[in-house]
Design goal:
Helix 1 packs across helix 10, helix 2 packs parallel to helix 3 and helix 11 runs parallel beside helix 12. With about 425 residues, this protein is α/β, with parallel strands linked by helices. It folds into 2 domains: about 170 residues, MOFRL domain (glycerate kinase, domain 1), CATH 3.40.1480; about 220 residues, Rossmann fold (3-Layer(aba) Sandwich). Helix content is about 35%, strand content about 15%. It contains 15 helices and 12 strands. Strand 1, helix 3 and strand 2 form a beta-alpha-beta unit.
């Protein structure tokens, strides 16, 4: 039995992942949404997030001459030249995953854009993951230094996205539905690509136009310096009718499309009911344990894990951390596992994740690397680069959390 999976196994997993991405691509889902719910009259568009460029492209195609002007805010490398060439579109960059001075400038531009928009225009908002970092208007007592300190702590805290956005909302004058007040009586609609559990509009992007829909849960355990900042949160008031929100792309849609791709190639496929959550290390243990005992076939998980970072972290992100943990647990098993972020980014790297197999651990060791030491240093990416297992897609035009696709072969040499 050979430890490494056949090349066709890797290609199958990549094909399934790309099929999932295509089903929730920003341009596609916006076109579908606007065909189902046409907007009348002149339209001004605000697109924010890592999928903003693709979502705006769908709006441009659907609205045609109806689109009068648009404001696009995304991260560097995620805005196409074609979008910027459209004279109707103002393109801005914000900081991600750490907000920066560009994020604050984008926040001011966002307010100015809304204020200058004619009351005769319908405002169409296109939101996807990344909004929380890309655009911000801070409370008067919070400055950029404090904002970045908070976000550095959050990114390494191990908290889930709901808790993280609850903290971010407390520092802001636009999150938690507060931006809606700026719309006054303008007609508005929001189309969202969900990157959060349960697809809650008030959590996506920290709810720029959507106040918390349920009673606010208690703040997570925070250091004293951060709790002092959070305690200054401004009240959230609903001063206008709620903005109509539609979640138009979800993780479930991507998983269903990926599964269909696998079945179309003749394989038994199961989408797992239990999603990814908790630490990347524990999720990897659960997945590896399941695959080691499973019948041959393909198994899909989706969700989002977290990593508690050391003071100085290395190369990688939660998906590479999960993948490397799984590779160690599944050494010499006839399996291949894809672990990737649907936005094409993992942590602060430019890769989506990795596709590991039963020979990954051996290939890493052959390079003289201690995989467990690299995991301890949050440096999984260095090991996976050495083993040749990193997955790079570039910006995907969507963002619906993370996907894991596990392929269990009847033996190591067949597919």
């Amino acid at each position: 039995m050979t430890a490494s999976a056949p090349p066709r196994a890797k290609q199958l997993l990549e094909d399934m992942f790309l099929s999932g991405l295509a089903a929730v691509h920003g341009a596609r889902v916006v076109r579908q949404a606007l065909a189902a719910r046409p907007v009348a009259g002149p339209v001004s568009v605000v697109a924010i997030g890592k999928a903003a460029d693709a979502m705006l492209a769908g709006a441009v195609e659907s609205l045609g001459a109806q689109l009068v002007q648009a404001l696009l805010i995304s991260k560097p490398g995620f805005i196409s030249q074609a979008t910027c060439a459209d004279a109707r579109v103002t393109c801005l960059h914000g900081g991600h995953p750490l907000p920066d001075e560009c994020s604050l400038a984008a926040g001011e531009q966002l307010l100015a854009f809304i204020d200058a928009t004619s009351s005769e225009h319908h405002l169409l908002f296109l939101f996807s993951g990344g909004c929380s970092s890309l655009v911000e208007v801070l409370r008067a007592d919070i400055d950029l230094t404090a904002l970045q300190r908070v976000n550095r702590w959050l990114l390494g805290s191990g908290l889930d996205i709901i808790a993280m956005n609850q903290v971010r909302r407390a520092l802001s004058t636009i999150k938690g539905g507060r931006l809606a007040k700026r719309l006054v009586n303008r007609d508005a609609t929001a189309l969202l690509i969900s990157d959060v559990p349960n697809d809650a509009p008030d959590v996506i992007g920290s709810g720029l136009l959507c106040p918390p829909r349920t009673a606010t849960s208690a703040m997570p355990a925070l250091p004293d310096w951060l709790r002092d900042l959070v305690n200054g949160e401004l009240p959230i008031a609903q001063d206008r009718d709620p903005v109509e929100h539609h979640v138009i792309a979800t993780l479930d849609m991507a998983l269903a499309a990926a599964a269909e791709c696998g079945r179309a190639q003749g394989h038994p496929v199961q989408v797992m009911e239990k999603g990814l959550s908790g630490s990347a290390q524990s999720a990897a243990a659960d997945i590896a344990g399941y695959l080691s005992e499973a019948q041959p076939g393909i198994y899909l998980w989706g969700g989002e894990t977290s990593v508690l970072l050391p003071e100085r972290s290395g190369r990688g992100g939660r998906n590479q951390h999960l993948a490397l943990n799984a590779a160690l647990a599944l050494a010499d098993y006839p399996v291949s596992v894809l672990v990737a972020g649907t936005d094409g980014n993992d942590g602060s790297t430019d890769v989506a994740g990795a596709i590991i197999d039963g020979g990954t651990a051996q290939r890493i060791a052959a390079h003289g690397l201690d995989a467990r030491a690299h995991l301890h240093a949050a440096d999984a990416g260095s090991c996976l680069a050495a083993s040749g297992d990193l997955l790079k897609t570039g910006p995907t035009g969507t963002n619906v959390m993370d996907m894991v696709i596990g392929l269990k072969l009847p033996d190591a040499d067949t597919l």
